[in-house]
Amino acid sequence: MIELVVNGRSYREQAEPRLLLSDFLRHTLGLTGTHVGCEHGVCGACTVRVDGVAVRSCLLLAVQTDGCTIETVEGLAVDGELNALQRAFRQCHALQCGFCTPGILMAASQLLEGPPPSRAEIADMLSGHLCRCTGYEPIVEAIARVAGT
Amino acid sequence: MKPAAFEYERPSSVDEAVAALGRDGAKVLAGGQSLVPALNMRVIRPERLVDINRVFDLDNVAETDGALAVGALVRQADPRLRRHPLLAQALPHVGHYVTRNRGTACGSLAHADAAAELPLCLLLCGGSVVAASARGRREIAASELFVGPYTTTLEPDELVVESRWPLDGWTFAFEELAQRHGDYALCIAAAARRGDERRIAVGAVTPAPALLDVDSERPGESAAEQVEPWGNLHASSAYQRQLVHVLVDRAVARLA
Predict the structure, then answer these.
(1) Residues A92 and A68 in one domain
(2) Is CATH 3.40.1260.20 what the domain over B171-255 is classified as, yes or no?
(3) Fewer beta carbons within 10 Å, N or C terminal of chain A?
(4) B95 closest CA partner among B34, B38, B27, B146
(5) How far are the Cα atoms of B10, B29, B129, B159 from residue B55, in angstroms, in the given order?
(6) Is the pLDDT of residue B246 over 90?
(7) Residues A7 and A68 in one domain
(8) Which residue, of A31, A55, A75, is where some domain finishes?
């Protein structure tokens, strides 16, 4: 049995040790906004924030997050309105199919909480996220727009 | 793919952790950025995982005895690691922003991927690890630690509790080529200098990172003559040898 808070809501659920956090979020909690691509830490699609830190949810066991606070892409919008980062993605055409987008949004959210990232720092962060639609430039643009850089 | 079943233990002290590791089929789970992919792909199927993420004593960085002592829970993204000049250069090449958030420096050493940055760095700066088990603690010099790909002289029941990175006046130049930023390296070369002393280390082209004794008149060329790269899907043996030549010369030039 594990207890955790996801997007401000408390949960108490069974999880066998081998259950990945990505599967726990999607299958046990029904939060399918977190996408599963490669399931070995390469594609970045499953990135969520655990106690504020962006991590691959396919490389964490659900039992490891007992007592933690988790944010997923479903937690970004405020009162049904897209947040500034999500709006910038829409304005800059920073997504097409949208499969990689939840993971990038969660990693970018952490990056934007630090000092305003340069375009080089944004590109460095994006090296851990595979996007096959956009060519990355619109994503850099969207994040830079929010950062004001 | 999903991991096979295992027993899960979450000790809260080093003593509890080494006791758990003394049992058969146990494996340390630290950052998990290499271990969990291997579990997911069922490359390994340990009977039990000993999760050290709540052994908070291990989240420590201190300058002691002229070295930066880095506890087993210190993440690769931790800014305290940048106090070591070689780590400051090498860490941006280690994995990605998100994997550095979770992956640990000590875990990378214990995992000992032949193409990883941190084992080479520990070797180049003359560092060591402290391994704990129910039998006690011992310090293992980097030169005695790395044997081959994913192979170290650590015993199965030993936990790396600390790595030690000497701060003794060397300056460093770190060079790496990977297909994409953050990927495993096709070749790593790093040079160190202190007064008239010189060291050169290469990685990803040898079974374990290696210190080379190079001709100071033609460092890159003589380094390339000393390695027998295996080659891989992305780089032939001849290409990797050429990379040794170029990257060693670049690193040496930056220190001149």
Answers:
(1) no
(2) no
(3) N
(4) B34
(5) 8, 12, 18, 12
(6) yes
(7) yes
(8) A75
d(CA A85, CA A147): 9
- The third-level CATH classification (topology) of the domain covering B58-166 is 3.30.465
B47 touches A: beta carbon within 8 Å:
no
Written as one letter, the residue type at B177 is L
Choose, out of A18, A22, A49, the residue to mutate when testing the contact with B (most B CBs < 10 Å). Answer: A18
Residue type, A112: L
Residue in B205, B209, B219 with CA at minimum distance from that of residue B255: B219
Tokens encoding B211: 């210190």
B8 touches A at CB < 8 Å:
yes
The correct answer on CATH 3.30.43.10 for the domain covering B7-51 is yes
Q: In the predicted model, what is the mean pLDDT of residues B63-90?
A: 97
Q: Which residue of A has its CA nearest to B102?
A: A55
Note the ipTM here.
0.96
Enclosing domain of residue A71: 2-75
The verdict on a CB contact (< 8 Å) between B98 and A60 is no
Contacts of B180 in chain A (CB under 8 A): 127
CATH assignment of the domain containing A114: 1.10.150.120
**Chain A hits for B101, Cβ within 8 Å:** 53-55, 110
Q: Are residues A43 and A108 in the same domain?
A: no
How is residue B102 written in tokens? 């979770």
pLDDT digits (tens, 9 = 90+) for B128-140: 999 999 999 999 9
The whole-number pLDDT of residue B256 equals 83
Q: Residue B29's pLDDT is what?
A: 98
Identify which of A59, A123, A127 has the shortest CB distance to residue B37: A59
- Compute the Cα dihedral for B12, B164, B144, B43 and give only its sign: positive
The yes-or-no verdict on residue B229 having pLDDT over 90 is yes
Residue ranges of chain A whose CB lies within 8 Å of a chain B CB: 16-18, 20, 23, 39-41, 44, 47, 53-56, 58-61, 63-64, 107, 110-111, 123-125, 127-129
Q: What are the residue ranges spanned by the domains of chain B? A: 7-51, 58-166, 171-255
Q: Which stretches of chain A drop beneath a pLDDT of 50?
A: none
Kindly report the number of other CB atoms within 10 A of residue B156's CB atom.
Answer: 12
If pLDDT is split at 50, 70 and 90, which confidence band does B153 have?
very high
Q: B32 vs A58: CB contact, 8 Å cut-off?
A: no
Say whether residue B6 is in contact with chain A using an 8 A CB cutoff: yes
How distant is the Cα of B175 from the closest Cα of chain A, in angstroms?
17
